[in-house]
Write a structure and sequence with these properties.
Blueprint lengths: L2 H4 L11 H5 L6 H8 L6 H13 L24 E4 L8 H4 L7 H13 L19 E4 L13 H18 L5 E5 L1 H14 L15 E4 L8 E6 L4 H5 L5 H14 L6
Parallel strand pairs: 1-2, 1-3, 3-5
Antiparallel strand pairs: 4-5
Helix pairs in contact: 6-10, 7-8
The structure holds iron/sulfur cluster.
Iron/sulfur cluster binds next to helix 4 and helix 7.
């Protein structure tokens, strides 16, 4: 805690106002990520992420879990964002990197690699050397929630981080792929806050959905695309196949001006 926080002038990490106060004041993604990883604004999620990190899954018992908010992953000049809902308890909450260390992440990185946006298929841990080209992975909620479901209040509290992240990505951001209907619902208010006009009634989620959102400040429009989430439930049942995800990512890459393979 610094002097201003001690004097009560700035909300500390445990305060629900911490994200809304700090996120818009960050000058770059590095500063944003530094503040984000300190955040303890949602008591239920803080308790859950730390309990999971303490108890651990048997297969990972010898590993030190991250157990903190998981920042976005990818270059600061990305023209494409891929957005889930929240980190997985034994995936991102364990490894500290978005979509890293679980089946869903492996599926996604394999698809990104097929399109030419990831340096390798699959992901192991934050130091595995994996790099992304032109794409940033992030989420509207940055802490792992129980049953993968954050409450509306938690979504609202965390919204400021992603809104600021999209703002810092700047006018170069052209397209967003949302993985799953829950992520879609959580992202729409963030996009409205970050400066795009979201139509009423709100556009419906679906695999292959594609909506163009005009900027409220006459800036660049944003292409919003939907894909089923690469959860084990969807990929094991064939609801989402690799060609289906690759097709959406390839379209998004083209919209983002990224040469895809
Ligand atoms: Fe902070 Fe977001 Fe985690 Fe809540 S979910 S504690 S706002 S980082």
């Amino acid at each position: 805690m610094d002097a201003k926080q001690a004097a009560g002038q700035m909300p500390g990490p445990d305060d629900p106002g911490f994200p809304a106060h700090h996120a818009p004041r960050c000058d770059d993604l590095g500063e944003l990520d530094a503040h984000l990883t300190e955040c303890r604004a949602c008591p239920r999620l803080v308790a859950w992420r730390e309990e999971v990190a303490e108890v651990r899954r048997a297969a990972f018992r010898d590993q030190e879990y991250w157990g903190r908010p998981v920042p976005g992953f990818g270059p600061p000049d990305a023209s494409l964002a891929v957005v889930g809902l929240a980190p997985a308890a034994h995936g991102g909450n364990r490894t500290g990197r978005m979509f890293t260390g679980d089946d869903a992440g492996d599926f996604l990185f394999t698809a990104l690699h097929t399109v030419g946006l990831a340096s390798r298929p699959g992901s192991v841990h934050a130091g595995d050397g994996l790099t992304l080209r032109g794409v940033r992975l992030t989420s509207p909620v940055h802490c792992a929630p129980p049953a993968n479901l954050p409450t509306p209040e938690e979504r609202a509290t965390c919204r400021a981080w992603l809104s600021a992240e999209l703002d810092l990505l700047g006018p170069g951001l052209r397209a967003v792929v949302v993985l799953g209907g829950f992520g879609w619902q959580a992202l729409l208010p963030v996009l409205a806050e970050a400066g795009w006009r979201v139509p009423r009634p709100r556009p419906a989620f679906g695999h292959g959905a594609h909506v163009v959102l005009p900027a409220t400040d006459h800036g660049r429009e944003l292409h919003l695309l939907g894909s089923y989430h690469p959860s084990r439930r969807n990929t094991y049942t064939g609801r989402l196949t690799m060609p289906m995800l690759v097709e959406v990512l390839r379209e998004a890459a083209a919209l983002g001006g990224l040469p895809a393979s």
